[in-house]
């Protein structure tokens, strides 16, 4: 039995990637957002000239309104009791309305949840939670960008072995690899910023027609009420109610998955390149082992990858539930969104925070990079040899020479001894040995790597 008679369900024992990074998506944060959504609606009704100022003042004071960005804090609503009461109606807003109304006077009571439906409040609350969480994810991605830009710039010309299908392919640079990570993070950040700015309030009444608000204040007042609600909460004004048009949820989910994908790619590369037999990268602070004290595990990469392996399925669940919502409020699909979106936000928070720390402390072992690059004895330049020597020797002969060199031969000596190679060298005014040495210099076959790095690390001007 648990030592705590009322333990929280999840402290992160099985989700170490999120520990210390998920305070914006806890039940307490969601409860704050629910209360904030209710108080924000009362304020919007006041702005629209419908609710009396005295009633709204009482509501604000009672439930700790601290402005659009902070919302309601110290409101005193019991989350555990509310969760238990939510079972009967299928969502926490129904019992919440009763709790809030009980705590204010008769005049103010009338303006709590006036004209709204549960989905208006719950959807709006989740957008408030998403706004707070995505701002943290964006900040973590921005920190990672800074570190990656520095890494790419400082390692711009450090030649390394590129690997395709796990094997050495052609030369690349450490800087270009970092620039690729940088581009992924930058694209993900930009997309998440767009999604975050578009997070809308929900206000449609019982079935998305705003009929209740038309009844309360007339057509034009009702038409302007969603925008007033958005201003009170600092969210976007929707074009129309989106009770079953769930693009705000699926769009946000897709952007979050891309963010986790971007840092997951970094983690996968770091984990691979930090293997003992490769050793080109190392995390600034490695993890330990309970049984093998010599190990320096890439713990941050492992945690980030754990999130990256889970996030796409959560995004898919949002599409399965949200995008296929039926009628004017679906039976279960809406409910399936809530924990899915929360967990996806949670993973994004943890993964990007760990990624920012990871890339800031990432260590490149230049000796290991060079050792691995040289391990093939020039075979990593096989493509270049085929391009340069193929017209003179024929592709088949070049391939045979490379294969023979791969079987413990001396590729440089074999090439320099060929009359055709000597002729090519003489045409360039060089000795055969110098010509071959140039052909087998990995630094001479990195293509546009330096240019691609320069383009990646130069901040793009916005029009």
Q: Biggest sheet: strands, sense, closure?
A: 2 strands, antiparallel
The strand line-up of the biggest sheet is: 1-2
Mean pLDDT: 93
What is the CA–CA distance across the termini?
61 Å
**Structural class assignment:** mainly alpha
Poorly predicted runs of 5 or more residues: 288-294
- Write down the overall geometry: elongated
Helix content: 55-70%
Number of helices: 19
Number of E-state strands:
4
Whole-angstrom Rg: 30 Å
What order do the helices and strands follow?
HHHHHHEEHHHHEHHEHHHHHHH
Q: State which percent range the strand residues make up.
A: under 5%
Task: Explain briefly what this protein structure is.
The chain has 463 residues and is mainly alpha-helical. The protein has 19 helices and four strands. The chain has a two-stranded antiparallel ribbon. A two-stranded antiparallel ribbon has the order 3-4.
Describe the protein's architecture and organization.
The protein is mainly α. Helices cover 61% and strands 4% of the residues. It contains 19 helices and four strands. It has helices at 27-47, 53-62, 79-89, 93-102, 106-109, 118-154, 174-197, 211-217, 219-233, 247-273, 299-321, 333-360, 366-374, 382-393, 395-406, 411-416, 419-427, 432-439, 449-457, and strands spanning 159-164, 167-173, 281-282, 363-364. The strands form two sheets. It has a two-stranded antiparallel ribbon. Strands 3-4 form a two-stranded antiparallel sheet. Strand 1 (159-164) and strand 2 (167-173) form a beta hairpin. Helix 6 packs across helix 19, helix 10 (247-273) runs antiparallel to helix 11 and helix 10 runs parallel beside helix 12 (333-360). The longest helix is centred in the first third of the chain and has 37 residues, at 118-154. Mean pLDDT is 93; it is low at 288-294.
